[in-house]
Amino acid sequence: MPKRKLDTTRDGSPKRPSAPASDSVVANSYFSDSSLNYRAPCTSGEGRMCDIFRDLRIWNEFLWPVGLELREYCPAELSLLEMRDGHVASEVPQRKQDAATLFQHLLTYHRCLISLELNGCIFTDHYQLICDALSQSPSLRELKLCLPSINTRALQKFTAALPLQNHLEQLECRLPRLDQTFCEGLSEFLGSTVSLTTFTLNVPVLMAHEGRILFQGLKRNATITTFSLKTHMKPYLNSHGNEFAEYLRDNQTLRTLILSTKQPIDHVEQRLIMHSLFRTTTLSEVKLVGFTMDDHNSGLVALLLRKNQSLRKFRMYNTTLKNITVERIRPEDAVEICRAMRETGVRERFFLGNPFTVQDPGATLTECRDLSSLDIDSRVLSEFDRFRTALRLLPSCAHVTSLSLVEREELFGNNVTNGLIAQYIAGTTVLRELTLTFVSRIWDPVDRVERALVQALSVNRSIRRLYINGLCFDESETQLLAETLQSTRTLHDLSFYPEDQQSTVSLVQKLSPNFSTNYTLLGLHVHRHEAVHCDLFTIDDVLGRNASLVSRAAQFVSGRRRRYLAAAAELVHSNSGLVELIRDVTCVNEDEVLSQIRNSLKSYSELDDFMRLAGVVKCGVTCHVRDDGEKQLADIGRDCWLCIRQYLKMGDILDEQ
């Protein structure tokens, strides 16, 4: 059936056919003047994606002005998220009402929506509508509430809707402070829920009264296995420390406890926490973030690890029982530590949390080959020659996979230094992450490091994550950088923060027109200037699509067999983000991951396998004999089929009309 030609809109994008007036939210969407039949029912089912996935771009045009977006959470399931650095339109009242209407319909009727973030932009003014819909949600499993200010009535409605969430597994509340009414409602829910397994509370300070109310509910809970508390606990512990200890002692379901603080906490309170951990018999993982240890508490940690029979992982400053990750080591100890790592055989279990700052280029780059993440700062090295020595040694450092280069203004315009940086970037085949920071108030239109930099990046084939801070790029340089991003098969995450606004505007404008053909980039982080909001929306839409494809492809590689998962794997099988995702989940090396990806694609190379996965046949391909005796598909032979298969992709098989 021929496809219907769509009219184009003022920005050149396809215009959706108009829905009946009664079905329209507004006359036009934010960017493309498109209407949306938002009343269409959810069509998700076993092996079938909801039709809403076809219109995600249009939905997100309505949600964009209030800082929200629909993203594929996992194959065939949706998440409604708050956009980081999202845009809030100037015509807020009408846009908020439109978004709230969509919100209501999604929550009430779409079983494919399983994860939701509520932000202050839309929730504060429309909490009644949203909470009513929240009460009717058929399938919500994850819920996050993030509010910049407290609205008591809105929070009351929110907690009143929680007991009706029969499928809710994860709940996170991020608030500027706690209020008693909210704590009472939340405590009641925590004490009665039959589905919640993960609870996260993020507030600046946990006061004694509110903390006591919350822990009353937590003590009655019989389902939570992961509890994360991100707050300053001192006021609560001072008054109710024994209650906290009793909660840990008596709880029979909690397996993971995460306590995080950004404020200094007395060693006395830390001792109370440590003594509380002695009493638990079910915890298998504890993570303490932001805490410091005196000698006494360090001894308590050692005693805890020796006596607690259930604890399997204890993390403090990223230190675990199986893997040791230290934040930093002293430069003068680097050579000795690397030698000890080699001699004791712990190279695979010892990690640095931060890049190692190079102070002695000769010793560090030639003798410390166990340090894969380095920070080379021209100000730290203080002498031009030492900085250049480091740059000259880098090409021989096959062990360096992550590098941060900081060039200060005293080296700007130096062709030798700039040339060494460009040569290294162009030639390296092992570097995976690169951070470039140029600190200068000088902009030289003649001796331009920008030109050498973008030329080097255009030929690099190894960098996966790139961060550029500083410099001013002209039109020709942003054009080359845009072309590099468009064609790259390795770079999947870029942060671009130049010195001037025009560089960002120019790059975004050059990137957006043909960006839909890019299937590699998963993240683009820039200053979101008002002048390029339409272009940024186009880019964000493609980034969301790519992230969804990578997620689907990972599912296919892991063994889940669906046609749309196979189609995704064909599109992004070489994406470095896919390789990293599978590596992190399976904990195997990259060679093994690449082998898994190849094998998954080969699993349906034969005719019968392909047609079964595509849904064309149930068992195998058979054809009725033709009257003229000519060969048919089942008769062409394996070699001919494999030749055809080179040009036939799973995505070419259309849905049944």
Automatic annotation (TrEMBL):
Ranges of compositional bias, category Basic and acidic residues: 1-14
Superkingdom per UniProt: Eukaryota
SUPFAM superfamilies associated with the record: RNI-like
Gene3D superfamilies in the cross-refs: Ribonuclease Inhibitor
Annotated region (Disordered), positions in chain: 1-24
InterPro entries: LRR_dom_sf
PANTHER family reported for this sequence: C-TERMINAL OF ROC (COR) DOMAIN-CONTAINING PROTEIN, PROTEIN TORNADO 1
Designated name of the protein: Nlr family card domain protein
Organism of derivation: Rhipicephalus sanguineus
